[in-house]
Amino acid sequence: MTGLRYVYAVCRPFGTPLQAELTGVAGDPPRLLTHHGLVAVVSHVPERDFAEEPLRSRLEDLDWLTATARAHQGVIDALTVVTTPLPLRLATVFRDDSGVRTMLQAREADFRRTLDRLEGRVEWGVKLYADQPPADTGAPADKPATGRDYLRQRRSSVRAHEDLWQRAEEFANRLHETLSAVAEDSRLHPPQNATLSGVAGRNVLNAAYLVPRSRSEEFVELVDRTKDETTDFRVELTGPWAAYSFAGEKP
Amino acid sequence: MTTPGRLPEPYGRDGSANLADILERVLDKGIVIAGDIRINLLDIELLTIKLRLIVASVDKAKEMGIDWWEDDPALSSGARRKELARENAELRERIAQLDPGRGQEKEA
Q1: Does the keyword Methyltransferase apply (chain B) (predicted)?
Q2: What is the pTM of this model?
């Protein structure tokens, strides 16, 4: 039994070998399967985890999912160092090599078009966070003396919140505009939930930018400069990622 | 063959990259190809994938202590009812404070 085939990415043939110690999901090193000038990056995975039934329940297991997602991303990262990979979604699994070849052949034209579009480009993630203002802004007396005081305090606290979100939104718009000038393309993703991401503050902007490698340094410096422009908001940069957000067809 | 240009050092992902960032990409972005093993990630019962962040069944999430949606009015009708009831009670109390006479008059 040689197991199933897990496909990470499709790319063009590349000269530089992957790090020797690189392992993919299920601990198997990624292998290159070449067909008609396209390369599928594949590793062997066991049926006991990746056949349909077990996979379904495995995906509900957060520890397993975390390990698998990190291993998947690890292979994509290694590929990004040496080439421009088209990352596939997690858990794309075929029965055998010939299934992978058939898929490569069927999608050949798409892959080539997308590879041409993304060649030499990477994705940078930029997020903007705003911290909640303190609950009782400028109200030292906890208990309002009268109903009118209460309403006044409440109004001013609501106003402080609204003001903060509005300024955050304006800052986010400006930031997005500035970065879009250097990037070739961008995507705005839904903000991340703080409870799950474990990051403090409210995520106001969650954007991805497609940037040529040659302009990446410039892009990073630009983000660094905007970090210094504000003390109210936090700008977070992640990357370089493979062009995950841009690999699908244009919306 | 591709010869990638020089890239800046990775940012914000030193070994312990934010799991939400990784999951957001590997589960929700990238190319979708129907393999031989057909699993639609969106079919997996997920409250959290709806939030497009992380995968866990509701029970699993509760086990792990992730239960914040139960108190989030946008996600739970129970929380919405609780929120309304709380606001209602708070407003009643405030009205009573604003106009202490009224409640007694009525009772009289």
Answers
A1: no
A2: 0.76
Report whether the peptide linkage leading into residue A240 is cis, meaning its omega lies within 30 degrees of zero: yes
pLDDT recorded at residue A196? 63
Q: Is residue B84 situated within a structural domain? A: yes
Residue of A nearest to B95 (CA): A147
Number of structural domains, chain A? 2
Query: Which residues of chain A have a CB within 8 Å of the CB of B66?
Result: 195-196
- For residue A192, give the CATH number of its domain: 3.30.70
Residues with Cβ within 8 Å of B54's Cβ and at least 6 positions away in sequence, in order, are A62, A196, B19, B20, B23, B48
Q: What ipTM is given for this predicted complex?
A: 0.85
Q: B8 contacts in A (CB within 8 Å)? A: 216-217, 220, 240
| Tens-level pLDDT at each residue, chain B (108 residues) | 444 456 777 765 444 467 778 888 888 888 989 899 887 666 554 434 444 444 334 444 555 454 544 555 545 555 666 777 788 888 888 888 887 665 454 444
- Whether residue B35 and residue A92 make contact (CB cut-off 8 A), yes or no, is yes
Flag if B2 and A199 touch (Cβ within 8 Å): no
Distance from CA of B108 to the nearest CA of A (A): 24
